[in-house]
Write a structure and sequence with these properties.
Layout (H helix, E strand, L loop, with lengths): L1 H26 L9 H39 L2 H26 L5 H23 L1 H12 L15 E4 L1 H6 L1 H8 L5 E5 H11 L4 H18 L6 E4 L9 H12 L2 E4 L2 H9 L4 E3 H7 L9 E9 L6 E4 L5 E4 L9 E12 L2 E8 H7 L7
Helix pairs in contact: 1-2, 3-4, 7-9, 8-9
Length: 366
């Protein structure tokens, strides 16, 4: 508010001076020594009128254009701003070099062409850099990458993984990233961050807790020395849904997507985008148990079929224990009889060793 008042005061002062100059021209006043009462009757209202006009129009020529420019700049990606600034600087440098030779041309060309050169080369510099920013930046990154074995320039590429809302809320990505298994920079688009904030502000307690958990995971990764986390300001145009924006941004940046969303997983892979699914990773690193092996299992509840019991391995794999109902609440040795791989994960069937011993069917794997 203080800044707005300061701008309005400056504009009012400028318009008051304009009113003074207009009034002085009207009365033919050349110096203050010639000031008279009749001249003051014209100058004072002109100056006050200019000040009032300046106070009224100040928001339209200062504050509101500044706010509109600020909102527009927030929508422009940082890379485009950097490219536009560099292009403008290069264009103005070329225009400055040509200004002196152009000024030597006969009138009116010597007067007009330097100014036209500033406009033309400034516009061309900004346009070329914005339209070809990826190729230009990649060209310069190539020199930073050094040379390969054959002497060719080796481009310096920085792989990137885009985090989806679901995988952030899940939280396991923080543990995985801190182990160092992820080779790329983890990136959170601004629209994903906005969705997390919207979920965290939800009236539903469950959704609110999920959103807050996601924000806590991001804060944890941001303060972890083992994790390289960045926030991207790019907001792809032409896409409204978060998943569509994520796919468009991944295609634009040639980045991978980390998600737990099954539908996003399928759609992204159909479009040739690399997808890392944390659920698939969890299933892949579960301990391998083969038929015939013996494990210790605690039967904690009944199964769906008669006399079945259910237990879990340390990694969360479900074990269905045949004839295990009477062992509920006890930890018993069981022998694996069958292993099934389903969409939900690995499912193990086993039989208590006591039951096999009674039937003389204990199998000792070689």
């Amino acid at each position: 508010m203080q800044w707005d008042r300061l701008l309005r005061g400056l504009v009012m002062l400028v318009f008051a001076l304009v009113g003074w100059e207009l009034g002085r021209s009207f009365v033919g006043l050349r110096s203050l020594d010639q000031l008279s009462l009749d001249a003051a009757r014209v100058l004072v209202p002109a100056m006050l009128g200019g000040g009032v006009v300046g106070w009224l129009v100040a928001p339209w020529i200062t504050v509101r254009p500044a706010r509109a420019l600020r909102l527009s700049l927030r929508q422009v990606p940082t890379t485009q701003l950097v490219a536009a600034t560099m292009g403008l600087a290069i264009g103005l440098m070329i225009a400055a070099l040509l200004a002196y030779p152009l000024s030597l041309l006969p009138s009116p060309f010597g007067t007009i062409l330097p100014f036209v050169g500033v406009i033309l080369f400034g516009y061309l510099g900004v346009t070329i850099m914005v339209l070809r920013q990826r190729e230009i930046f990649a060209f310069f990154r190539g020199f930073r990458g050094g040379t390969g074995e054959n002497g060719a320039v080796a481009p310096l590429r920085q792989p990137m993984m885009l985090l989806d809302t679901s995988v952030i809320i899940d939280g396991r990505i923080a543990d995985i990233a801190e182990t160092g298994f992820l080779w790329a920079v983890l990136a959170v688009p601004r629209f994903v961050l906005n969705e997390l904030q919207y979920i965290a502000d939800s009236a539903d307690e469950l959704r609110r807790n999920r959103g807050r958990r996601g924000l806590e995971m991001l804060d944890r990764m941001q303060h972890s020395e083992q994790v390289d986390l960045v926030v991207l300001d790019q907001d792809p145009r032409g896409a409204r849904q978060v998943d569509d924006k994520l796919i468009s941004l991944a295609m634009e940046l040639d980045a991978a997507i980390v998600t737990n969303d099954y539908n996003l997983n399928r759609v992204a892979r159909l479009q040739g985008i690399q997808v890392l699914n944390v659920n698939e990773l969890a299933n892949a690193v579960k301990s391998v148990v083969l038929p015939g092996e013996t494990v210790e299992i605690k039967v904690i509840q009944e199964g769906k079929e008669i006399n079945q019991g259910v237990g879990y391995l340390d990694d969360g794999t479900m074990v269905v224990v045949e004839q295990g109902r009477r062992y509920i609440g006890r930890t018993i040795p069981v022998q694996v009889t069958k292993v099934l791989q389903t969409n939900a994960g690995r499912l193990i069937f086993a039989t208590p060793l006591a039951e096999l011993t009674e039937r003389g069917q204990v199998h000792h794997p070689s």
